[in-house]
Amino acid sequence: MMNGKNSYNPLVSVIIPNYNHAPYLQERIDSVLNQTYKDFEVIVLDDCSSDNSREIIERYRGHEKISHIEYNSLNSGSTFKQWQKGLEFAKGEWIWIAESDDVAHPDFLSKCLSSVQELDLVFCKSTIINRLGEEATYLGASSFPADEVFNPDVPVHHIDSSKFLEERMFNFNHIVNASSVLTKGATLRQLIPEITDFKLCGDWMLWVLILSNGNGCYLNESLNYFRVHDQTVRASQSSTMGTFYENARIAQYVFKQRPTKALRSNISEYLIFAYFNRLSKAQRKGSFLTMLNLISVYGPMAVIHTLSHKLKHD
């Protein structure tokens, strides 16, 4: 039992990185402070918001669980740099990056911590909500991961990292929301410098890095509410050339770890499809030589297929 005698009660550092999420910030902070598990500290970071976020954050100054409040004088331009900054203050064995527009179930920490020993990462199901907090959909789904990824009849899945990465994580981030994840602090500190140059897909890259070198677990219970709205970075950058390159970088890392014939074929097919079907001709303009260079990693047939699609689409 968490917080009980002779139980495992690690300190959790909760990092709340905020930028212009004033409408959701009080609900987010309160959902952290109201956790049934009590051994945690909260680090609130604001990345030079232009809304009234500071006013809301200041209401919590002096709260016994708030260990740090930090305001940037200039916007960092990177969510992942803010994650790294939060780690500089964190004292916990485990880290929860609680994005400032999401909401947590009161038992998120207690239930996740019941499964974390000997692991580097644990995450739960995320239910999609809209800006009003009503249940909604994202990419046509009301929750993530999809039932096809993990058997919905099994409450706890100890992940076969190699299989999960090779079959699932090269073309889609099934750990769709950072707020659903607890990560071992030592692991996060070691790997987070690898993602600070990402604009959108740094979380996806981070989960791939962690699972390539460690162990993870999935709790098939909705303990996180992932808010989807038009103010998110995801909404503005999900179909850009830069995001495609980040996807390609992640896929290449997975392939280098597991250079199988099947993965070579699957990744090249995915990248060719994404390049020609998810990006407009205008977005692709001037990028084809770069595309040929990145696809060449997967062999001459991948290059030939790319040239063939070029003739068909352009």
What is the mean predicted local confidence, pLDDT? 94
| Helix/strand structural class | alpha/beta
Measured as a percent range, the helix fraction is 40-55%
Please give the CATH class of the largest domain. Alpha Beta
Tell me the fraction of residues in β-strands, as a range.
Answer: 15-25%
By DSSP, the count of extended strands is 10
H/E element order: EHEHEHEEHEEEHEHHEHHHHHH
Low-confidence segments, given as residue ranges, are none
Secondary-structure arrangement, i.e. CATH architecture of the largest domain: Alpha-Beta Complex
Q: Using only CA atoms, what is the Rg?
A: 20 Å
How does the major sheet shape up?
A: 10 strands, mixed
CATH superfamily caption of the largest domain? Spore Coat Polysaccharide Biosynthesis Protein SpsA, Chain A
The number of domains? 2
Distance between the termini: 61 Å
Shape: globular
The name CATH uses for the topology of the largest domain is Spore Coat Polysaccharide Biosynthesis Protein SpsA, Chain A
